[in-house]
Amino acid sequence: MLCIVAPVSAGQADQVARDLDPTRTTPLGDDCRALCETLGFVHFACLAVLPPIDGRPSLLLELAVDPGLGPDAVVDALVRKGTHLLCRLFDLPADPEALRSWLSRHLSPADGGYIGVRDRSVSQIRAEAKLFVAVRTAVASARTGLLRQQEPPTSQRLAHAARGVVQHPDHAFATTPSPRSFWRSTDLSTPLRVALILLKLVLPALLVAMLLAGVLATIGSTAIAAGSLVVGTKTVLGPPVFLSFDRYADWALGYVIVSLVVLYAVTAALRAGVIPIASGFLVAAVALFGFLVLPWVLPGSGGYLDKLWHFGGAIGILSAWGVGVLLYVAGVVLGALVLAAAALLVVPPHLGPPVLLPVTAALLAAEALVLDALLGWLAHGEPARHVLALEALGQAGPRAHTAVLLLLTLFLVIAAVVLRVVWVGLSRAGKRLDGFNKVTPHETPAVQQTHPSIEACEASLATKVGHMISVTDVRSRLHGTALRLLMRFIMFLGESWFTEARLGNAEGIKFGHWHLIDGGRRLIFCSNFDGEFGAYLDEFILGASDGINLTWRWTELRTRDPAAEGQPGVTRARRFPPTRWFAFGGCKHEQWFKAYARDSMVPHLFRYEAYNHSNQDITRATRLRDALAAPSPDLLQDDRIMRAAES
User: Fold this and answer.
1) What is the pTM of this model?
2) Membrane spanning segments where (predicted)?
């Protein structure tokens, strides 16, 4: 699932909008359709003009392509077969190499998405659909012949007629089962699938935590070493504390080195592909867990095991110092900025720099005195005793470590219960105060207010596969980062768990994909689906509301001008319906959500579909092919063929 999004001039956007009309055939539309047919790997495609940002509209080319086809292969095919057409659409010089470079810069792979009928190419779907029709015809003909001869049309005789279809050269592919990816393998049991999903999600988090501990320990050891040189030996930063780490400093240094090697291996693996990724994570797990865990469980470790216990205490102390150093630096910088801003507010502008500079210097000097007092308190006060206690813990035996871990676990359980009670109370109070489940007429315009251009596009797809393009604004960069992570998580769940054309309880989604564009400031959602738009939204509300809320809750609609003449703009800014606990509420405000989705839509100018089969039709045809490809015919297999053929 790919999109090419590039800014164009307003004149070019209007010209493309005039040359393409979704309600009728046009010469430019015929050229686009011919290109898609020539490529052979495009399931669905569309062209649309996006509303302007930074003063210029953008042209969108959406492509839903065969599985396993990478961006480079798509760019190469577009350059070889569509240079003239693409240069005309995007107003570029007809230079294939320049077009290749331009496409690579503006091509946007999906940040998140879901494929309903996955692992199927265009040619496979078309061939299996023809096979299904041929088998149905052969079975009907055989049944008619048997009834004419007054013989019972048993499943065995009808299945024999169905197998005869495979003898035709056009249907010879049905002698082999349909291809399946690893996650769609029939041998993958549910417990094993859950274990693999958890492994893939948890292992990277553990590696990141271990690498973070190594980085923090490095910062902490540097701070203690610097403190031993700068501050006197009587402070907690002095040589007594630093030298106490000497007995396990070699282990701390080894951990940092192993962390850096693992970080390099994982980074290189992520750039190389699926198998290297698995190998990289395996090497990382063996290196880190072997370095830290194996000596704890092996008998006869002797001094090595004792050193490792000390090392664990050292890493804890050094990491604590690393966190403290980072917080201290951040506090110094933030305090200086606040004091400089305060000086600008206090000093009248007409007094100028002669007064402003001394006031700022005085405030910064006061900050330095406060920080000096803070360091003294840290060195000689209560925190110093805590650090010395941590040092003693680092030298303690396994029993002390076990006791501390049990106490920490008990503390975390109690803290989690308390936080849960507080959070529920705040959530209930917020619900009563804000009335999140109440939708006022002012907040929700009438759902029937659909722009004529959107209605014309939907009317042109009345007997075809449905389609929508939504363009919303991301609320902030922080929201965009969270949105990107969540979309990748949802995409992973779609690949590994929701593999059989069913996302939650929602059926009928063929290709749905999200793209963050314009530097993460806007979110595009393109979807191809069965049925009409209203029923499609109802499926989301009833069957996959949590996924929609997790994605769109980070967005809003800001006022914007139309992308081209005769297209809709946004005249009233608003946010996505409010959610509770991130995933609940939201689109459950049905009319509010539908109005939000409607107003975010832009019309397509051109639409291509390689086939017009529903997800159920495609799944049924694949099931028939798998039944026909069974190696040993028997009564049970005959029954499978007939159930697939007559469903």
Assistant:
1) 0.68
2) 201-231, 251-270, 277-298, 318-347, 359-380, 400-423
